[in-house]
Amino acid sequence: MKLEVHERLTGLSAASAKEYGKLVQKLLAIAFLEAGAESLTDRSTQGIDLELVIRHKSRAIEVKTSESGSVSLGKKDLEGLAAREEGGAQAYVAVLGNRFLDEWTFARFHKGELQAQQSYSITQLRPYRDHDLEKLIAKTFPEAVLKHADAAASRGQPALDEVLAGYPAYRRA
Amino acid sequence: MRPIALKLRNFRGWREGQIALDRPLVVVIGKNACGKSSTLNAIEWCLFGKEIEKKASGIAERADWEASHRGASAPTEVALTLATESGNATITRRRDAEAAARAEDELTVDLADGRKLAGSEAQAWIRESRLPDWETWRRACCQHQEVSRARLTDASDRSLILSSLLGLDDFDRLNGVLREQQPRKLIELLDSELAELEKVVLYRLSQPSEDLFESERRLEALGVERARISPALSLEIARAASGRAQDLALRLRVTIEVPSFPSDADEAAMRKWADAWIAQVRKESKLSDRLSAATKKRARIAAELEQLEPSEARWRESKETLALELRERGDDATRKRLGLEAAKTLQDAEQRLREENRTLSLLREAAGVLRESQRFDQCPVCTSGVPGLLARLEQTLEQGGGGKIPALSAERDQARERATTLEAGAGALTRLVDSETQSRKSYESRRENLSALLTPGRLRDGLDLLAAAREEDEALAKEISELETLLAGLEPELEAHRGDAERLRELNKWRVAARRAQQRADLSASPEWKAFQEALDAAACFAADLDVLGAMAREAQEERSSSREEEVNRSLGVYTRLIAGESAGLDVRVRVKRTPKGLSYDIEDAGGGRALSILNQASLNAISLALLFAQAEERARGGLPTWLVLDDPEQSLDDEHKQGLARAIERVAANSAVVVALAPGKLSEWLIARSALPRRTIQLGPRDAKLGVRIESQEER
Questions:
Q1: pLDDT tens by residue, B531-588
Q2: Domain range annotation of chain B
Q3: C-alpha–C-alpha distance, residues A34 and A170, integer Å
Q4: Residue B281, phi-psi category: left (phi > 0), alpha (psi -120 to 50), beta (remainder)
């Protein structure tokens, strides 16, 4: 991660506190849309965080941010991912740590391998990485952060919702 | 693989001997100290180079015996012949009597095909033949009085024995290895290293930013607005400084080439010029020197002017005095003539006076002569008589030459006075002339000095010296004023320039810091970072695989333990009941505990309690043997070479138990080679007389003083 991006995210985290996870989810949504997502559904409340079609493949992504370097998944998260997997989409747990060397980790979800409420370090999820998906947003995510983090820090989610609303492929559920 | 023969030479009590082990059951019988235990120890020593530790007294006893019966130089050698699938193989271990404590034994294996393996090759052959290793031997293949209890009381040994019984020792080994590797700790270690790496990288990457911010802060302190900071600002500052420098050079009337900067291409030249300019101005302008020189010159002119007028006045006064003197008393020639005349007059007056005085003297002399001669009226010269001559002479003398002398003296005094007056007048004139000359010269010198102080050209036609000097003074006053103004204004100007130079230097630092900041590595794009990520992925995958492997091993272990537990308990129960008897009610079983870290094993009684803590020695011995036999059965079932070496296993057992032990030995010997050393008694009788198994009995006689252990008979059935 570029230092500037890390600094912006650190600033955003400090400015947004509990909202940080949702802001990062929306920045990730922008990154996917910029990367050419054909459709993207962003969920703010229940269900899988992001569902998108990109490169003609359906993906369901549970987005997690981590300050401790580890994440735990709720039972509903796992059930949701399993359901999407069964429905034909590729399911992922996407984790972004707050360390400078952390990049997005898109871990492929395999039913039964991840346990609910168990803590997984980001490194533990590395064996399941989908490098191709990570590459897709490697350029667009830092750009989205540099472009929109200041607005997100000052105005919160509405600022990013306005940006997202400008993409025809975006849908908010 | 079964043992078929043992050949001993100089081993403990044995001088030389060979016993056949070619039956499933070999019973070595002899009284105490006949060499039974030595015989069994020889098997262990041959296979492993060591033996089960003995009690201190036993070792001392045997060592004493060996020392007194064996030649000091005789090597120890034991050869164990085994029947293998490819024919007989003989393992031979040899050790020189005087070998150093750490010297390795000589180990060889003679194979059926004629090959002879030695050293590490022989060791490898033993390993590959799946012969038990030392730990397995200790736990599962031998029974010695010294280790029988430990098999039960040592929790670690007990657990290993039970694991082996359950056929889980391989899983346990794998679990142990995985526990050692600790995949999760590996992940934690990776995370920890990653965090440390991040600190280093962040520091390295943030340093250029810090330098940049610091440089911007310094530029702000130097009066440059942050918004104006740019590479082009250097050119702007340098151009402004250059313009001011040109004005200053003009005002200072110094010739210094001030460069113009058409572009910011040569930013280094700008800084170099700006840094050097102040020293150059100071050097070239000599402003202070010039001010000092002008001030001094003006002071000297003022001093000369101050002295010039009095000097001129003095000269004029002496000149007028001289002129007056000359007017009044004539000039020098007149004074000389008058002086000469006065001198002549004086001289004449003095001459006449001298002549008159001589005349008077002669008259006085004549009068004297007249008086002496008493011829008062006779001429002394011509002797003619002159009446009243002496009287007249005396009257004349009395009247002073008839009054001529006073007149002549007065005349002379008058002439002398005049001569003196004239002489004094001449001296005064000379002094006046000298004074006039001196004052004139002084005045002229002042003028020359003043002229010399004037700027060339200042004393132009129509302008007298004083006017020129005053003009010069005014010019100097103006110059001094200008220089003072310049000097007063120079420092602020130079200070302003110093600020520019400082800003240029700081801008250069900012430019460097900005360049470095711009060049900050985008780690995600660097090949090194990519390689590191791949290595991290590989490590994480390895850790995950280890984790999965561990889970699989635990699952397999659990499955196997579940399937084997009952079988082992049955086998253990059979042997326990055989040895201890049904009536003893000794019902022990293996207990498998499932913990988050894996399985653990122990022995418990039928009630689920810890059986071992309350049992007597005989029961413990029975259970220990039952464990041993059950392990032998398990090894045999697994197709492993299986021997049992039992050294006096009947200790603490009563006759009923001994009968049971005989049945148990008979049962285990059906699948394992058993060599048992016994003192003559019920157990040996049972085994020799009543066993249905093919067996060999080796009867050892009392030790011979020279020959050592002695075989009395070998009998096979």
A1: 888 888 888 888 888 777 777 877 777 787 777 788 888 888 888 888 877 776 777 7
A2: 1-131+641-717, 222-285+466-518, 318-453
A3: 11
A4: alpha
- Confidence band of A53 (pLDDT split at 50, 70, 90): very high
Closest CA to B600 of B609, B608, B591: B591
In degrees and rounded to multiples of 5, residue A147 shows phi and psi of: -80, -40
- Sorted by sequence, the CB contacts under 8 Å of residue B392 that are 6+ apart come out as none
**Rounded Cα distance, A70 and B207, in Å:** 29
- Report yes or no: B17 and B42 within 8 Å, Cβ to Cβ: no
Q: What CATH number was assigned to the domain covering residues A3-172? A: 3.40.1350.10
Residues from chain A contacting residue B187 (CB–CB below 8 Å): 121, 123-124
pLDDT (0 to 100) of residue B523: 65
What's residue A156's pLDDT? Answer: 92
Structure confidence at residue B70 (pLDDT): 53
- Selected for mutation to probe chain A from B191, B193, B200, B537 (highest A CB count within 10 Å) is B191
Residues 6+ apart with CB under 8 A from B278: B494, B497, B498, B501
- pTM of the complete model: 0.50
Q: Give the C-alpha separation, A57 to A108, whole Å.
A: 14
Task: List all residues of chain A from 73 to 112 with a beta carbon under 8 Å from chain B.
Answer: 99-101, 103
Query: Does the beta-carbon distance from B202 to A129 stay under 8 Å?
Result: no
- Tell whether A115 is within 8 A of chain B (Cβ): no
Of B668, B666, B629, give the one whose Cα is nearest residue B151: B629
Architecture per CATH, B1-131+641-717: 3-Layer(aba) Sandwich (3.40)
* Contacts B189 to A, Cβ<8 Å: none
Identify the pLDDT of residue B519: 60
Please enumerate in sequence order all residues whose Cβ is within 8 A of that of B193, keeping only pairs 6 or more positions apart, or say none: none
Tokens of B307: 């002295």
Residues of chain A with Cβ-Cβ distance to B202 below 8 Å are 3, 100
Structure tokens at B344: 């002549």
Tens digit of each residue's pLDDT (9 = 90 or more) over A67-123: 888 898 888 889 999 999 999 999 999 999 988 778 899 999 988 888 888 888 888
Please report, for chain A, the start and end positions of each structural domain, with discontinuous segments joined by +: 3-172
| Architecture category of domain B318-453 in CATH | Orthogonal Bundle (1.10)
Q: Which residue of B has its CA nearest to A100?
A: B198
Q: Please answer yes or no on whether A127 and B206 come within 8 Å at the CB atom.
A: no
Q: Which residues of A touch B197 (CB under 8 A)?
A: 101
DSSP label at residue B520: -
Work out the minimum CA distance from A132 to partner chain B, whole angstroms. Answer: 14
* Highest mean pLDDT: which range of B109-118, B129-138, B534-543: B109-118
Instruction: Tell me if B524 and A103 make a contact (CB, 8 A cut-off).
Output: yes
**Cβ atoms B367, B377 nearer than 8 A:** no
Q: By the CB < 8 Å criterion, does B524 face chain A?
A: yes
For B74-88, write each residue's pLDDT tens digit: 788 899 999 988 899
d(CA A47, nearest CA chain B) in Å:
28
Q: Is B3 helix (H, G, I), strand (E, B) or coil?
A: strand
Distance in angstroms (rounded) separating the CA atoms of residues B672 and B467 = 147
Interface predicted TM-score of the whole assembly (ipTM), two decimals: 0.83
- Residue B64's pLDDT band, with cuts at 50, 70 and 90, is very low
CB B557 within 8 A of CB B171: yes
Q: B523 and A69: CB-CB below 8 Å?
A: no
